[in-house]
Amino acid sequence: MEYWLTEQQQLVQSGFHDFLAGECPPARVRTAYDTDRTFDEDLWKEFGQLGFTGTCIPSEQGGSGLGLMEAALISEELGRHAAPLFLEGHTLAGLAIALGGTASQQERLLPGLAAGERIGSVALSSEGNGTAWCDWQVEPGGSNTASVEAVPLGDVAQVLVIGCANGQLGVLETQRANVSASNSNCIDRSRNIFEVSFEEAAVEALPHLPGEALGSASLVLLSADAFGAADRLLELTVEYAKTREQFGQPIGGFQAVKHQLADYALAAVTARGLFWKAAGEFDENPESAAKSAAMAKAHITDQAMHIARGAVELHGGIGFTWESDVQLYFKRALFDRTYLGTPQVHRERCAELSGWS
User: Do 274 and 295 contact (CB within 8 A), yes or no?
Assistant: First the structure.
């Protein structure tokens, strides 16, 4: 397994970075907080036109034919720009159907998802914590009346991949069922999640991918997003330390501040390899990536919050204010740390998978 990016992967990330830098400034992110709009339709159309809605979908089904590593690099940029759209939910739905669906399911669902003409998402949370992939209750096949929690894009998703009983996955086409969505109003309003309820809905089994494997992919993308947010927070804090003056000089000149920023930089640089490793393992064998994915989620999201708290501290009083962009990334890091299980939960999972408990 190679631990560096290929030229193609570098181009994917740099291209997406340039796109978001131009089209997704902080003012666009703040719109998600200032209004009741939960879905940026214009941004979604741009993602579709550039092919980012088909990242993990095979080229024969209209997608880019890329893997989880490329999806993780895209998630890193989503976090770095605090992009107001939960693209990961759609990416995971396409990935699940591409790896786990039957030929007829893939033919019916993937082209529309790849083009962005249909919006996909996933329901992987379990009783609010999202950690027990085998505690899901929905039964694949037959008719279901149930509610699923913490669903990205839940108010607009037309194809919903759901965690089902016995650790299976199933797919629900929402236009074929009586479906309603309620906004959970989480702290990061740039990425709203919903409780989705459905009545007498047919959930088709996705027979070829275990639910835990898709859970691992979701942890990788959350880790990458948190890394991107933390890296941007570090950049903002270094820039601020060069301009904020105390006692007639920039605070960046004080030894204590230098040490603090160096610690944050070291925490960020060493964390990147964890989600690279987990993504690479998933692309080689999805069922073998559980331990690396859990480790990445636990460590990176923990370090992201460490850096976020330090960024607020070093920005002084302005770091707590609405006018500062720091709060956008702080909320993003806090969401990534909590969604689908806290670091403690995933450290326990690592111990279990290592045979230590």
Answer: yes
